[in-house]
Design a protein that fits this description.
The chain has 278 residues and is mainly α. The protein has 13 helices and no strands.
Length: 278
C-alpha cells in the first residue's frame, strides 16, 4: 500500500511540475527555465540524504546515477520544449511511452514480453502515430503535430533514465535521486552558461522554483517506491502524470484536441500502462 501511495503522489507532483514549467516555457527561454527548475529541487534531496546519514553506496551507483541524470536532462528539455510549442494533451501522453525503452533493454537481455506487453507496444505505437498527426485538411499533406517530435525525444530520454535510475536505486534510492538530479543540474547550467539566455523577472521565480521542488520531490518518491513494491506496479501508477497535465491544460488553458488526437493520446497512455504492468 505504501508503494502505491508513493507512486501516485509522484505522478501528481510530476504532472503539476511539468505543467507549470511547460507553461512558463511558452514565454521564457528554455535554457533559463531549465536553469531554475532543475537545480531548484536539489536542496530538498540533499536534506533527505543528510538526514539519513549514510554515505554514497559506491562507484557503480555513481555511473548509473550520472547516466540517469544525463538522459533526464534530454528528457526534461524535450518535454518542456514540446509543452511550450504544442498541445499539452498530445505531448504529455507521448512522453508517457518511455517504458518502451526499458522493455527494449529487457529484450536485448533475452527477456520476452508478455502478451499484455505485446498488446501495449502495439497500442502505444498506434497512439503515438494518431496523436502526433495534425487532422488532415483538404488539399494539404499530413504533417506532425506541433511538439510531437520533442515529445518523442523526451520519451527516449526518460526511458533511458528509468533504466539507469532503477539500477542506481537498487543500491540506495535517496542517493540515486540526488546523484541523477545533480548531473541534470550541471548539464542544464552548462547549457545556460553557453547560451546566456534572458533571465526571467522576479515574478516568475516562485513558480519555477516551486516546479523544481515538486519535480525533485517526485523523483525521490518514485525512487523510494521502487524499493517498497513491485516495479511493474509503481511504474504504471507513476506514469499517470500525463493525465494530470492534460486535465490542467483542459481546465486552465481550455485546450481542445481533434477526436483522433484524443483517441491517440489515450491509446499511448494506455499502451504505456500495459507495458509497465506486463
Amino acid at each position: 500500500m505504501l508503494a502505491v501511495l508513493l507512486a501516485l503522489a509522484a505522478s501528481v507532483c510530476w504532472g503539476l511540475s511539468d505543467f507549470v514549467a511547460g507553461l512558463k516555457s511558452r514565454s521564457l527561454p528554455l535554457p533559463a527555465v531549465l536553469a531554475i527548475v532543475v537545480p531548484g529541487g536539489l536542496p530538498l534531496l540533499a536534506i533527505a540524504v543528510a538526514v539519513r546519514g549514510s554515505g554514497p553506496p559506491g562507484a557503480a551507483f555513481a555511473l548509473y546515477a550520472a547516466l540517469a541524470g544525463a538522459a533526464g536532462a534530454v528528457g526534461v528539455a524535450g518535454l518542456y520544449r514540446g509543452l511550450a510549442v504544442g498541445a499539452m494533451g498530445i505531448v504529455a501522453p507521448i512522453t508517457a511511452t518511455a517504458p518502451l525503452i526499458p522493455l527494449a533493454v529487457g529484450l536485448g537481455r533475452g527477456e520476452r514480453p508478455s502478451a499484455l506487453q505485446a498488446g501495449g507496444i502495439a497500442l502505444a505505437l498506434a497512439g503515438i502515430v494518431m496523436a502526433a498527426r495534425e487532422p488532415l485538411a483538404r488539399g494539404r499533406r499530413p504533417r506532425a503535430a506541433a511538439g510531437a517530435t520533442f515529445a518523442v525525444i523526451a520519451a527516449c530520454g526518460f526511458g533511458i533514465a528509468l533504466v539507469a535510475l532503477d539500477a542506481a536505486s537498487n543500491r540506495d534510492p535517496y542517493w540515486s535521486a540526488l546523484g541523477s538530479r545533480s548531473t541534470t543540474a550541471l548539464l542544464v547550467l552548462a547549457l545556460a552558461l553557453a547560451r546566456r539566455p534572458r533571465l526571467p523577472g522576479r515574478a516568475a521565480w516562485p513558480a519555477l522554483v516551486f516546479a523544481g521542488t515538486l519535480d525533485a520531490f517526485a523523483t525521490g518518491l518514485f525512487a523510494v517506491s521502487t524499493t517498497k513494491g513491485l516495479v511493474s506496479v509503481v511504474a504504471v501508477l507513476a506514469s499517470l502524470y500525463p493525465v494530470v497535465i492534460a486535465i490542467l491544460a483542459r481546465v486552465v488553458l481550455h485546450e481542445r484536441l481533434a477526436a483522433t488526437q484524443r483517441f491517440g493520446a489515450a491509446a499511448a497512455l494506455g499502451g504505456a500502462a500495459l507495458i509497465s504492468a506486463g
